[in-house]
Amino acid sequence: MNDSSRLQGLPPLVTGHTRMLVLGSFPGVASLARQQYYAHPHNAFWRLLQALWPASPMPGADQYQQRVAWLLDKGLGLWDVYASCEREGSLDTAIRQPLVNDLAGLLHRCPDLRLIAHNGGESFRHARVTRALGLPVYRLPSTSPANASWSFERKLAAWRELVAMAGLV
Predict the structure, then answer these.
(1) Over the stretch 53-78, which tens digit does the pLDDT of each residue have?
(2) How far apart are CA 35 and CA 150, in angstroms?
(3) Nearest by Cα to 64 from 35, 107, 85, 43
(4) How many angstroms separate the CA atoms of 123 and 102, rounded?
(5) C-alpha distances in angstroms, 34 versus 29, 30, 130?
(6) How far is 24 from 129, CA to CA, in rounded Å?
(7) From first to last of its 169 residues, what are the pLDDT tens digits of the chain?
(8) Which residues are catalytic?
(9) Can you say how many angstroms the Cα of residue 145 is from the centroid of all Cα atoms in its chain?
(10) Which domain holds residue 145?
């Protein structure tokens, strides 16, 4: 791959009231194509969030900006560990030459941040960097369809625990 084929990630979705930041590794092909976090229809991310907050209906997949506003209103922020990389397909194992995002710089934009949650193993490989930010850091089971060893209910329980720890329920 040359520089012109280097993939660029998505900007952070945070506000000054973000209390929990979920860090993925890098957007998959579907997410990059749509310029939307967790756009693959089989990724459990949005379904998990709706299950966490059932009393607050989440806008549909065709209303991404409203979904983002809904998510931010809950105090949840999103970003990825990698700003850019080379990769064929969507698997984390195919990521090459990654450039890490400025995670420390993001803290200034999120004064209410209480914890950082890594969505999956590849993201969690950078827990050393996120721990250095002085916040509690946790590993969540990946919401990716590639993580078929965890049931939806088991993923939901893990996510529910961290959302509660961040005071988002």
Answers:
(1) 999 999 998 999 999 999 999 999 99
(2) 27
(3) 35
(4) 14
(5) 9, 6, 28
(6) 14
(7) 445 589 999 999 999 999 999 999 999 999 999 999 999 999 999 999 999 999 999 999 899 999 999 999 999 999 999 999 999 999 999 999 999 999 999 989 999 999 999 999 999 999 999 999 999 999 999 999 889 899 999 999 999 999 999 999 8
(8) 43
(9) 14
(10) 3-165
Question: Cα dihedral angle (60, 147, 25, 162), rounded to 10 degrees?
Answer: 70
Size of the chain in residues: 169
Tokens of 9: 């990630």
CATH of the domain at 13: 3.40.470.10
Q: CA 47 to CA 107: how far, in whole Å?
A: 27
pLDDT, residue 146, reads: 86
d(CA 44, CA 156): 9
Total tally of structural domains belonging to the chain: 1
